Structures are given as C-alpha cells and as structure tokens.
Amino acid sequence: MILGLVLALACAIATNIAFLFKHRGAVLAAPVQGRHPLRSAADLFHSRWFTIGWLVAIGAWVLHVAALAIAPLSIVQAVLSGGLVFLAVLAERYFGFHLGRRQWVGLVVTAAGLFVIGLTTGSQDSETPGYALAALIVLECAVLGSATVLALLSGRLGLSPAGEGMVLGAAAGALFGVSDIALKYLTNAVGNGVLEVLSPWLVAALAASVVAFYASARGLQLGPGVEVIALTSVAANLVAIVGGILVFRDPIGAGPLAITGRMLAFCLVIVGAALMPAPVRASRAALP
What we know:
Number of helices: 11
Structural class: mainly alpha
Largest sheet: 2 strands, antiparallel
Shape: globular
Number of domains: 1
Distance between the termini: 41 Å
Helix content: over 70%
Radius of gyration: 18 Å
Mean pLDDT: 84
C-alpha cells in the first residue's frame, strides 16, 4: 500500500508537469479540429513544448499503472487529486501563473484530506474482493458515452471560448477517469495471463484516451490553462474514485471512525480541488 501511494504521488507530480508543458505547447499550435484529427495531432507535436509534455505524460502513465497494480483505485485517485498542490506551486513559480487566496485555501484543504487518508490507510484491509461486472459495464458505458457527446457538442453550447475550454477539460477528465477504471481492471486481469488483457476494456481505455487527448488539447487552447487542468483533474479523480468504490469495492474503512475519516477525507480532497481553479492571470514569462 505505501509503495502504491509513493508511486501515485510521483505520478501526480509528473502529470501536472506534463499538463503545464502541454498547455504551453498547445497555445502555440494550430487550433485542434475534430474533422482533421491526424493533421491536428501533427500540429500539436510540431510544438516542442507539447512533445516534451506528452513524453513526461507517458512516464506519469507508467507510474499510474504501477500504482493501480498495487493500491486500491480510489486511494490512488485521491492522491492524484492532491497533485493539484503541486500544480499550483509549479504553475506559479515556474510557469508564470499567479494564484489567488481561494486557490491557496484549496491547497490547504486538499493537503488535509490527503493527511487523513494517510492516517486511515493502515486501519483497513487493502485486498479487494474482485469487481462488480454490472457496475463496470454501466459506469464505463455511461461516462464514456456522455463525456464523448459533451466534447463533440461543446462548440454548439453557445459558450465563451473560456467556458468551452472548461467544458472540454471536464469531458477530457471524465474520459481519463474511464480509462483509469479500465486500466485497473486490466492490471487485475493480467494475473490470469497476458491474453486476458485483450478485452473490451482495453478498447474502452484506448477509445477514452484518444478522445480525451483531443478534448484536453483543445480545452487548453481555449480556456485558462491552470483552471482547465484543475477541472480535468477533478473530473478524472471523481469518476475514478466512484469507480473504485462501486466497481472494485475499494474499502472505505474498518470501523466507524476510519469510515467517517476516510469519507471526510475524500470530500476534503474533492472540495479542495474544486477551490483550485481560476488563476487570475499569467505573466508574459509563461510563454517562450
């Protein structure tokens, strides 16, 4: 369990560094166009900052898979939610963003939630009794379908560019959460043989990741960078935490005190993450 938390923490840091680099590259690239996915991908990767961010994201993904193989999904995602702490520090100190008082309050609330999660980790059984197939099917199909439709229709909702960027960020986050749930299933299935990985859930993970790639990139082009990143993280972690509890029966705690503490901790992490959006401005130093 402790190793899984360490890997998740490293993944959180790497993920936010990757997002910040990808934001820097995305705003310099040509607008992403759904009708021309290959051309849009090529334009994005022609930006060295986006390419660097994508490579860092691959490393974060490896850390994420390793964490999912060791620790319960809901715990891993709660730690990743706390990665917004690193997002704020990195964005303000190295990428030219300036955060307000509300955002820093979000840091404290998120850190408190992570602290409680750490205190209650040792008081519960980390072994999960399999998974609920019906819940897996319903959750994956519902979120994958609704988030994809939301991403496709975001430009027709009459929103401002910033609002559309936030909607795309939320849709991308939900799709990343779908991918995380599928990956958790696959890390469990691989114990029965490599061929077990070749399943509909591999297709679901790939499909969600591809749509999320374009939705996230376009959202970063349209909306305020850190705000979109934070909203993406909140949506991804919320979907994955719910999936961990409903699908993989992740333990909430052993005993009334641990259960109450863990549930409050999850709430603190999500509330703290929700307070994080809305950096007021970015300095000129944010772009090369």
